[in-house]
Amino acid sequence: MRRAAAAMLAFVMPAFAAQDLMAEESALRFSAPANLVETGLLKYLLPRYSLKTGTRLELVGETETASLRLNSEGKGRLVFSGPENDWYLETEPDSENAGKFEEWLAGDVGQRTLASFSANGKQPFTPAAAKKAQKVNVVATGDAVQGENLAERHCGRCHMVNEKTRMTTIGSTPSFALMRGFPDWSNRFEAFYALNPHPAFTIVAEVTEPFDETRPPPIAPLELSLQDIEAILAFVRTIEPADLGSPLKVQ
Questions:
Q1: What is the spatial distance between Cα 26 and Cα 62, in angstroms, rounded to a whole number?
Q2: Residue 27 and residue 37: Cα distance in Å, rounded?
Q3: Within this chain, do residues 158 and 200 fall inside the same structural domain, yes or no?
Q4: What's the pTM value of the predicted model, to 2 decimals?
Q5: Are residues 50 and 108 in the same domain?
Q6: Distances from the Cα of 6 to the Cα of 2, 12, 18, 50, 201, angstroms
Q7: Is the same domain home to 111 and 142?
Q8: Number of structural domains, the chain?
Q9: What is the DSSP string of 26-39?
């Protein structure tokens, strides 16, 4: 029996070693600058992709050979922004697995995962869709009156937009006046559809992807255009920030 067991181990162990070697060889090498790695984003993002697909990603240095490479020089596809740069993903042309990762990161699930990352109570990175909207909306040309009507109709389901919506909102959600006092209020309103929980029920024409048929929105969907968002922003600019008597602590 001992000889049989030893023989079996001698047969199985090389097989496990071969599997380990194959897994090592099949790992996607992922390169990123040190300042981006230090934010913790990639330690948050990459394991979630690996868990979903079974593809292991190996994070390597900025100068090392890699199938996937994040950079701030405009090489490849814009995938997110922040805190100070726009970030692009450059992929190895002949790598099918690299292409799959690119589509995941640039797609709805990847962008939602990116938007859910937080550090020190803040969301330092903005999905590419939100960046696209910011480029379009450089000049504030929205109709504030129309924006107030839109905000009442769509946002008033959860937020206190004005006095008309005081009694129809969810008490745990911040009011527009409170959010107007945040240092980054403009960015928050411009890219609200990319920040949780909004992606689950919000569609912005020509910016966001359609809802997954297998995962319908949990509530009546909110459908807007970029012009609608600009109108809401124009309205929000007219709101007097809430005076809380002390500096706001943004969560």
A1: 20
A2: 18
A3: yes
A4: 0.49
A5: yes
A6: 6, 10, 19, 35, 59
A7: no
A8: 2
A9: HSEEEE--HHHHTT
Q: Which residues is 210 bridged to in the sheet?
A: none
How far is 231 from 144, CA to CA, in rounded Å? 6
Residue 101's nearest CA partner among 180, 25, 173, 42 is 42
Shared domain for 57 and 101, answered yes or no, is yes
Backbone CA torsion sign across 187, 189, 190, 196: positive
CB proximity list for 243: less than 8 A, separation 6 or greater: none
131 occurs within a structural domain: no
Burial of 161 (0-12, 13-18, 19+ CB in 10 A): buried
**14 band by pLDDT with thresholds 50, 70 and 90:** very low
> Backbone dihedral region of 183: left (phi > 0), alpha (psi from -120 to 50 degrees) or beta?
alpha
- Containing 203, the helix (H) or strand (E) segment is strand 202-204
| Residue in this structure with the two tokens 């403009």, named with its chain if needed | 186
Angle, helix 128-136 to helix 226-237, in steps of 10 degrees:
70
* Owning domain of residue 43: 2-115
Is position 245 within any domain?
no
For 232, other C-beta atoms within 10 Å of its C-beta total 27
pLDDT, residue 128, reads: 81
Cis peptide before 83 (omega within 30 of 0): yes
We report the CATH number of the domain holding residue 162 as 1.10.760
Residue 59: other Cβ atoms inside 10 A? 16
With respect to residue 244, please indicate whether it lies within any of the assigned structural domains. Answer: no
Looking at per-residue pLDDT, the higher value among 222 and 247 belongs to: 222
